[in-house]
Amino acid sequence: MDALNFLADGFASALQWHNLLFAFIGVLIGTAVGVLPGIGPMSGVALLIPVTATMTGGQGPEEAATSAIILLAGVYYGAMYGGSTTSILLNTPGESSSVVTTLDGYQMAKQGRAGAALAISAIGSFAAGIFSLVALVALAGPLSDIAIRFGPAEYFSLMLLGLAAVSGLAGKSMTKALIMTVMGLLLATIGMDNVSGVARFTYNNPILYSGLEFLTIAVGLFALGEVFKTIINREYETGEKARVGRILPTRKDLKDSAGPIARGSILGFFYRRSARSGRNAGFFFQLHHGKEIEQKS
Amino acid sequence: MNRVFDRYASIVFLLIGVLFVWESRKISQSSYGSNVGPDIFPMGLGIVLILLSIRLFYEVMKAQSAVEGDQPRPDYKRFLLILGASILYAYFLEDIGYVIGTFVFLLFGFQVIKRGQWVTSLIVSAVFSYGIYFLFVKVLEGSLPGFPSWLNLG
Questions:
Q1: Which of A39, A84, B10, B142 could form a disulfide with B56 if both were Cys (CB 3.0 to 4.6 A apart)?
Q2: How far apart are CA A230 and CA B96, in angstroms?
Q3: What φ, ψ does residue A59 adopt, rounded to 5°?
Q4: Looking at the complex, does the CB of residue A21 fall below 8 Å from at least one CB of chain B?
Q5: In this complex, do A182 and B141 lie within 8 Å of one another by their Cβ atoms?
Q6: What residues does each domain of chain A span?
Q7: What is the pTM assigned to this prediction?
Q8: Within 13 Å of residue A6, how many CA atoms lie on the same side as its CB?
Q9: How many CB pairs under 8 A join A and B?
Q10: How high is the ipTM of this complex?
Q11: What pLDDT digit, counting tens, does each position of A98-130 carry?
Q12: For chain B, what are the domain ranges?
């Protein structure tokens, strides 16, 4: 019962009023920073380290460290959520994990249900966060044994599953989806080969050695694609102003999204435990899973 | 999308596939005595891409020519103007700095989309470019090539 004692200690210090205030401020700043495209949770936390140092400076060293960590954790969670805002409203993912949000959220915003989409994404990330916290406390020991045994063969199967799920997301043309999947894999070969260290397609340009950043491609494809599509089709002349509308989702929205959120929490927890590098494949797989069930019902 | 676009796209992807196969032959075949070297993956993917684009071309040829509806004529002039401006913006970003570059780019973009209203465009682009710079560099202490080094503004 050591774990529970430590947990109680943690709660005792986290529930002090000034620490709750710091958590609130952190989430507030984090959401604001996460909304900026390109600044995800990691770079948000890195950017805000000096701010946390000044804010918690008034306390003794130990309390200041605790408060600073709480503040940064708030920033992390806030930025995670903030990334989904631009995905829903502008079809531009703020960071790589919210790419999937653009696919469904932006469609909802186009139908005038942007408020509901924002709320569902907030509820979903809250539920999943709480669930994975609880599950982590309970299952950290046994799961770490599995994680150690998760070898190359398992990673390979997982990535293959993720890629197969991507082509399942294809709209009308399976061929086009496969072409884009292969194209993405080809772009990923640019840079240093992971296995042998041989530079591929770099043409002696040192910037290319580290490969292309996933976020750069995602923002470029989604944001620039959206802008150019609007210009070419003259949508800015006829389009209506999208309104955020009512923020609280209707009872039906909640009922419809409860299942996917629950499934996403459980699947997401296991993906994150077992396969850090397969993160994005995991997200796509979840969405695919959700779509299938949507079609059945 | 329409058939013409799909046909051109399939040819472009075919060429990209050929390019990747061609270029992957220049990568050393094996670095440590194994048969599977760093060139296998891009070459295989290039071949798959070639096969897929041939299939897309074939599909487009077989498909019935859909009746092109009353879509408005695509606005290629504005698209090319904005695309060119974006490329120039990215290319000269380090030379002229973020604030001036963004200001000029936004002003150009606003005027391309809708002529006139010079005062509004000027104010919005000035406030936006300097506001983002201020937030990112002064408040968050990030690093961004703000002004050109020869202006000596910091």
A1: B10
A2: 29
A3: -100, 175
A4: no
A5: no
A6: 1-90
A7: 0.66
A8: 5
A9: 78
A10: 0.74
A11: 666 676 677 777 776 777 777 777 777 777 777
A12: 3-62, 76-151
